[in-house]
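Final report, closing paragraph on structural work. Over the funding period we assembled a curated collection of sequence-structure pairs, and we close with a single example.
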Amino acid sequence: MLPGIKKTLPLRFDAVLAKLPDALKTEGFGVLTEIDVQSTLKAKLGVDFRRYKILGACNPPIAHQALTANVGAGLMMPCNIVVYEEPDERTTVLAIDPMGTFAAELPELKPLAEQVQLKLTHVLERL
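Its predicted structure, as stored:
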């Protein structure tokens, strides 16, 4: 499994997607991008896939601090959050864990990565 913070909820896909922006907002994040993987795969490949969205979330103050500390930090932005439908009417949310991706290699970003990890954990707890 990729480094991430995961939570599977006993809620339908649409209900989770409706709650996620407010949960992100409570931790200072906004949604910058939204990719509908299901419709993209259907349009580009003609294949059917479960409902699956990738949201790109950003916390502007933390993003600014990270870019100031290391201009290459933009490679890891925005923070991806994946929402996908399970076969049993549950939904899984998986958020990137910056402690498992770039913090170990860039010590100047470790304190910010810890903040983001905590904030994203709180987001998933609110769902």
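The first helix runs from residue 13 to 25. The helical segments are 13-25, 37-45, 60-69, 110-126. We thank the funder for supporting this effort.
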